[in-house]
Amino acid sequence: MKKIMLLATAALQLTIACAQEKTIAERLGYPKNTKLLILHADDLGVSHSENEASINIMEKGCVNSASIMVPCPWFTEIAAYAREHPGKDFGLHITLTSEWTNYKWGPVTSSQVVPTLINKQGYLYASVDSVLQFASAAQVEVEIRNQVKRAIQFGIDPTHLDTHMGTVARKLDFLKAYIKVGREFKIPVFVPRQIESGLNIRLDTLMSKGEVVVESLVTILPQQMQSNAVDFYTNALRNLPSGLTYFIIHTAYDTEEMKAVTKGFVDWGSAWRQTDYNFFSSPQCAKLLKENNIQLVTWREIRDKLYR
Question: For 26-307, which CATH superfamily applies?
Answer without folding.
Answer: Glycoside hydrolase/deacetylase (3.20.20.370)
